[in-house]
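User: Sequence in, structure out. Go.
Assistant: Echoing your sequence, followed by the structure tokens.
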Amino acid sequence: MIGLSDTVAALLAAIPAAPIRSLLVIGLGAFLEGPVVTVAAAALAGAGQLPWWGVWLAAVVADVVGDTLLYALGRHGDRPAVARVLVRLGLTDARREALTREVHTHLPRIVIGAKLVDIGAIPAYLAAGLANVGYQRFLSWVIPATAVRAAVLVGIGYAAGDRLAADLESRPWLLLVAGIAVGVALVLGRLVIVRATAGRRRVHAR
């Protein structure tokens, strides 16, 4: 969540004079910070400062662009220099073979799982590119999953912003606090999912 306060400050500064520019800031913030910025921006929509559909669209585009960049990097993973980058991003030799095999046979499950647990998205999408999964097939699952995920995040933020509309005008820092709180909750939720999934795999392995 590094830079979140700067992103929120930019949003608040851009909205009065240039709502379109603020949506571009949201897109950049969602690309760099992920769900926390999406929820924070949606809270502004709930407070009547931005259109909810604009926040949703900016979040979806930012997410799909990020996923595409990972996929494109994976497509060049056979090059030695790129292969070293993939290892640093979490696609180790041990995970490489298993994930490339999985994305061929279980791409929908891999994509949906990565959307639920962001920490697994980077190696999964790198593996999709490395396995030469067709880009259209990749997008056919990534875009719907991203749209649903963004809608849930926007809904959470919008509901919070609607309740805090009056307070946000006099105390905009509440948006930052709420965004960080949601971000922490999401991180904890991911950790629980990751540990539960790892526990199930160990049981099956036995």
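User: And one key feature?
Assistant: DSSP finds eleven helices and no strands in the chain.
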